[in-house]
Amino acid sequence: MARKTIKLATYNVNGIRSRLPHLLAWLEKEAPDIACLQELKAIDQSFPADDLRKAGYGALWKGQRSWNGVAILAKGAEPVESRRVLPGDKADDQSRYLEAAAHGIIVGCLYLPNGNPQPGPKFDYKLKWFDRLIRHARSLFDSGHPVALAGDFNVVPTDFDIYNPRSWLKDALLQPESRERYRTLLEQGWVDSLRELHPDRRIYTFWDYFRQHWQRDAGLRIDHILLNAQLAPRLRGAGVDRWVRGLAKASDHAPAWVMLGAAASRRAKKR
Fold first, then answer.
1. Torsional sign, CA 191, 194, 199, 202
2. What are the backbone dihedrals phi and psi of residue 108, each rounded to the nearest 5 degrees, phi first?
3. What is the largest CA-CA distance in the chain?
């Protein structure tokens, strides 16, 4: 049975073994019901499943040595896996997508390619991966189930989502092709939850390690939680747990989250 209120979060941990104390502290304080993690940078055998289980979380994960890696955590439950790869390219062996059901919601956890340097093969891979995501997202959106796409999209949607676009004009995160694909995704009907509830507020989820970006609050919004038509009406709150970024030797990302209200009962839907 789904809970009345669900807190869904996404967090690029930038190395789950080295940031495990930060992750556990965040889970204890903020207690998300569902947490999507990216950039595990660990093989499957090194995933701290026992530590997370002691913290009250069941987990699914797909690791990769030194790079990438995604996981879905569920508080007091075991996520039910539905997909371990993004369809569309059987030769793609990068661990960037994981999909599961938890607490009555289908969640696609993703770590979209960075794409730098651009132009070049890494940027080409980013765009092709994005195109595959758009195609798969359409089927998820039309599934009739409540669905969220959550993760590090490595896209700054607009100039309002970055402290100063001039410094990043050549970066893959701001290229017109990247932004166009993000808009195409939203045009399917997905709701960008943080921007939906905070249309006029500068919100950042990433602060680069260099040039005192965190200390100057010179951030970017690249971690997103998108909701389909069945889930968007349940959106009650959204924010960023900035305190996690302020910890010593923290990830360069902070967790983003949404609060989702109760699903309408079958009787209410009939009415």
1. negative
2. -100, 110
3. 57
CA 23, chain centre distance (Å): 15
What percentage of the chain has pLDDT greater than the value 70? 96
218 close to 262: Cβ distance less than 8 angstroms:
no
CA distance 75 to 52: 10
Q: Which residues contact 204 (CB under 8 A, 6 or more apart)?
A: 161, 163, 217, 219, 220, 221, 240, 254
pTM: 0.95
Indicate the fold that domain 6-270 takes in CATH.
Deoxyribonuclease I; Chain A (3.60.10)
Q: Which two tokens stand for residue 173?
A: 């995160």
Q: Work out the burial of residue 82: count CB atoms within 10 Å of its CB; fewer than 13 is exposed, 13-18 middle, 19 or more buried.
A: middle
Strand partners, 152: 111, 223
Which residues on neighbouring strands pair with residue 11, listed in sequence order? 37
Measured CA to CA, the distance from residue 200 to residue 81 in angstroms comes to 37
Task: Provide the annotated active-site residues.
Answer: 111, 152
Residue whose C-alpha is closest to residue 115's, from 179, 167, 44: 179
In DSSP notation, 18-40 reads TTHHHHHHHHHHH--SEEEEE--
Query: For the chain, which ranges sit under pLDDT 50?
Result: 1-2, 266-271
pLDDT at 265: 52
Report the distance separating Cα 253 and Cα 95, nearest Å. 19
